[in-house]
Structures are given as structure tokens and as C-alpha cells.
């Protein structure tokens, strides 16, 4: 005969385990829990660790209070010159104040998104939309030819714009950690214009270098000419009649010492007697 107590004992253990499981849970570090009892959201966040709740009538959802990434891909915004980008990929990192998550859940209940790991990302859809608009608005401030050279400035501008928009309705609740421009691809015609602009810039830089070299060479020539002029001035100032007579006397002395050359020396404008060497 089957013992009913033996059959009911395991069932009782399972029921007890299920009851305990439904009344307790854990919150991971960096996250907070939001308790809902009979449809009423508690305004006190549950700290990381073990929590207890009423079975059936109470539920606890785990929300991230760490950095959350929003990947915006395949954007095609228009630049200031009314030319559209072919593709733009941006990553937005944001987090919510853990003490304000319960308020956010109550205010934006339908705009929180569930992560693949089971926790929720507070106001994810809200931040996603505002971030996308911020990207389009900031791209519209730049010409398409310079966007690829200003990624860091563009990322900073998007972060600032997004932070301002979030603070407009929920001041101090959201923090934009950083914005990363992963990819910017312009239209092929724009790419050609960019390449031509770069080539022209390089050509201009080369011409500027050549101009600077020519300028320096001209300055060197002027300096040399000035030096020669100064030297000539000094020499001409030192060529006195007495100095010239001295030089003539030295030449006559050399002429006399050789003695075997048929040479006639007739000093011009000097009070010396011409010497004639007729040789032997």
C-alpha cells in the first residue's frame, strides 16, 4: 500500500522551495532594484545584494545604474552644405543616478528597455531618440568637407547638446559619459572633393615652403651684397696716394730684382721716373 506521506513530502519540499524563491532575489553590484506591489511603484530603490518580497503580489525589476551604451548606426544626416552623409555610426554612453531610477521608472515606464542579460536600462528609448536628434542637429552645423577632420569636436558637441536636452526635463538625473564617432562616410562625390581639397592644400603648403626658401635666399644675397658694398667702401677709403705710391715702389723693386725681363713700367699720375729694362 502506497504511503501518502512519502508522496506528499517531496511535493511539500518543492512547494517550500518555490515559495522561498518567489520571496527572495539578488541585485548585482552597480544595479538597483525597483519594487512594484499591487501595481504601485515603490520610490525607494533596493540596494545591491539579497532582497525579499511578497510572493504573487510583489515584483522586483533590476535596473542598471552603470554606463549604458546606445549604438546609433546607419545614420544619414545632412551637413551644413545640404549634402547627406552616406553613413554615420555613433556610440553614446550614459547612466542614470541610482537614486532617481524609481522616479524614472514611474515617469518613463514604457521607455525603459530590457537588456539581454535580464536587467533593465532606464529611459533607454527616451535617451535614444534625443541622442539621434542631437547627432542630426550637430552635423547640420558643419560642412561635409570638414566633418572627417573634426570627429572629436563633433563628439563633444553631440554630448553637450544631449546633456542640455536631458537636463531640460530631468536635471541632474542623466550623465552623458562620452560620445564616440565610430564611422563617418560621405557621399562618393564628396570624397572626391575632399581628396581634391587635400591635394590643393598640400600643393599650397609646398608653394609656401618654396616661397619661404626663395625669400630666405634673397635675404642672403642682399646680406652678401651689403657686405661686399661695405668692403668696397672700406677699401676705397684706404686707397690713399701714399698707399698707392708704396705699392708702386714695391712693384719697381720686384722689377729691378728680376733684371732679365724686357718690360716697361710707366706709372700713371705718379711722380716717379719710368724705368726701362732693355735686357742684355
What is the distance, rounded to the nearest whole angstrom, between the alpha carbons of the first and last residues?
Answer: 169 Å
Report Rg.
47 Å
Mean pLDDT: 81
Structural class comes to: alpha+beta
Helix content: 40-55%
Number of E-type strands: 12
Helical segment count: 6
Read across the widest sheet, the strand sequence of neighbours is 3-2-5
| Strand residues, percent | 15-25%
Which blocks of ≥5 consecutive residues have pLDDT under 50? 12-18
Choose one word for the global shape.
rod-shaped
Q: What's the order of the H and E elements?
A: HEEEEEEEHEEHHEHHEE
Largest sheet, strands/sense/barrel: 3 strands, antiparallel
Task: Tell me what the structure shows.
Residues 12-18 have low confidence and may be disordered. This protein has 280 residues and is an alpha+beta fold. The strands form five sheets. Strands 3-2-5 form a three-stranded antiparallel beta sheet. It has a three-stranded antiparallel beta sheet with strand order 6-7-10, covered by helices on one side. Helices cover 47% and strands 22% of the residues. It is rod-shaped. It contains six helices and twelve strands. The longest helix is centred in the last third of the chain and has 51 residues, at 188-238.
Amino acid at each position: 500500500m502506497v504511503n501518502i506521506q512519502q508522496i506528499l513530502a517531496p511535493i511539500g519540499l518543492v512547494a517550500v522551495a518555490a515559495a522561498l524563491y518567489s520571496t527572495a532575489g539578488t541585485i548585482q553590484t552597480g544595479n538597483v532594484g525597483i519594487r512594484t506591489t499591487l501595481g504601485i511603484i515603490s520610490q525607494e530603490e533596493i540596494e545591491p545584494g539579497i532582497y525579499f518580497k511578497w510572493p504573487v503580489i510583489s515584483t522586483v525589476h533590476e535596473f542598471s545604474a552603470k554606463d549604458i551604451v546606445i549604438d546609433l548606426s546607419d545614420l544619414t544626416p545632412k551637413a551644413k552644405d545640404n549634402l547627406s552623409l552616406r553613413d554615420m555610426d555613433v556610440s553614446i554612453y550614459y547612466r542614470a543616478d541610482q537614486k532617481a531610477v524609481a522616479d524614472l521608472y514611474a515617469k518613463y515606464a514604457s521607455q525603459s528597455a530590457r537588456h539581454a542579460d535580464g536587467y533593465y536600462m532606464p529611459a533607454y528609448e527616451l535617451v535614444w531618440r534625443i541622442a539621434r536628434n542631437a547627432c542630426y542637429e550637430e552635423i547640420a552645423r558643419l560642412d561635409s568637407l570638414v566633418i572627417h577632420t573634426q570627429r572629436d569636436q563633433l563628439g563633444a558637441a553631440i554630448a553637450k547638446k544631449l546633456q542640455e536636452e536631458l537636463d531640460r526635463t530631468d536635471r541632474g538625473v542623466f550623465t552623458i559619459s562620452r560620445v564616440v564617432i565610430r564611422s563617418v562616410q560621405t557621399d562618393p562625390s564628396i570624397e572626391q572633393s575632399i581628396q581634391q581639397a587635400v591635394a590643393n592644400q598640400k600643393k599650397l603648403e609646398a608653394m609656401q615652403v618654396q616661397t619661404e626658401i626663395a625669400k630666405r635666399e634673397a635675404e642672403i644675397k642682399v646680406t652678401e651684397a651689403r657686405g661686399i658694398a661695405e668692403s668696397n667702401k672700406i677699401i676705397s677709403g684706404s686707397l690713399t696716394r701714399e698707399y698707392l705710391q708704396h705699392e708702386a715702389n714695391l712693384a719697381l723693386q720686384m722689377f729691378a730684382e728680376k733684371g732679365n725681363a724686357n718690360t716697361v713700367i710707366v706709372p700713371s699720375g705718379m711722380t716717379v721716373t719710368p724705368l726701362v729694362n732693355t735686357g742684355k
